[in-house]
Amino acid sequence: MIRVTTVAGMKDLVRRWRGEGKRIGLVPTMGYLHEGHLSLVRRSKSRSDVTVVSIFVNPAQFGPREDLQKYPRDLERDAALLEKEGVDAVFCPTVGEMYPAGYKTYVQVTELEGRLCGKSRPGHFRGVATVVLKLFNIVEPALAFFGWKDAQQVIVLKRMAADLDLGVEIAACPLVREPDGLAMSSRNAYLSPEERKAAPVLFRSLAAAEKLVAAGERDAAKVVAGIRSAIEAEPLARVDYVEAVSLETLEPVAELAGEVLVALAVFVGTTRLIDNVRLRV
Ligand code: AMP
To answer: Could you tell me the distance, in angstroms and rounded to a whole number, from the CA of residue 249 to the centre of ligand 1?
Structure first.
């Protein structure tokens, strides 16, 4: 596995691969890898000739009072995991390499960026779209792999890829959970043992909602209220938002019909966790 830290170095490698007619798969991550990330890597390996995993904790997607400084990092452990998966290259640039002095350009996916998590994390999706577009320009992938764990991210990036004619297929991959249902996340490392025990309430509340809909409930407000009250019953949890939205526009729906995303963000202690289910009604 080749480890690349500079944009120029990555572009050289990409030029060589493309000269050999190789289809490049890209898996963008912020590192501190878990099985969720590795599932994307395996998907890329099965669909691409060469796989690049980027590891970059992107300051542009963190708010001023968010966890940029304390975000967990362990590049050596990550590199060992990726080596074992047979990844071809890991791209781990410094902040200065991605955003050199004088950097001024940002990408905004209007409307979509302001919904759901965008309300409590203003500027987050502008940072995500910007870094992903930069990664696409550097790595020139045919395919890029993202997890449904971050459903709004998938929708925003699909829109960006279509709107800007990027010619990159955005491949969305299933959400990977712990055995007790908690969505895997690098941020789960922040949870104390008691908080970790409380955290599966997110998934349990969504699973109960899914059952309600399967049994015929179509009133979005009722389903959302059920999720809220299940979460509010857990003393360590505090709801940031629970919403049922159109999977395409991310606009709230009153009636559950077609493709609906039920998404939530919940603070467990001081850690903000997200989860979602997609329903085809
Ligand atoms: P992150 O390192 O959190 O930025 O995540 C990098 C990529 O891995 C994103 O596309 C995430 O959606 C995806 N990912 C993170 N956690 C999971 C999970 N539990 N299941 C599936 N994909 C995930």
So the answer is: 21
37 classed as catalytic: yes
Q: Where in the chain is the domain with CATH 3.30.1300.10?
A: 186-274
CATH 3.20.20.70 fits 2-173, yes or no: no
Assigned CATH for 186-274? 3.30.1300.10
CA of 20 to the centre of ligand 1 (A): 30
Check: pTM over 0.85? Answer yes or no: yes
The structure tokens listed for 161 are 């890829």
Burial per residue of 70-106, b for 16 or more beta-carbon CB atoms within 10 angstroms, e otherwise = ebeeeeeebbebbeebebbbbbbbeeebbbeeeeeee
Ligand 1 pocket test, candidate residues 37, 74, 182, 185, most atoms within 8 A of CB = 37
CA separation for the pair 165, 224 (Å, rounded): 36
The string of pLDDT tens digits covering residues 34-89 is 999 999 999 999 999 999 999 999 999 999 999 999 999 999 999 999 999 999 99
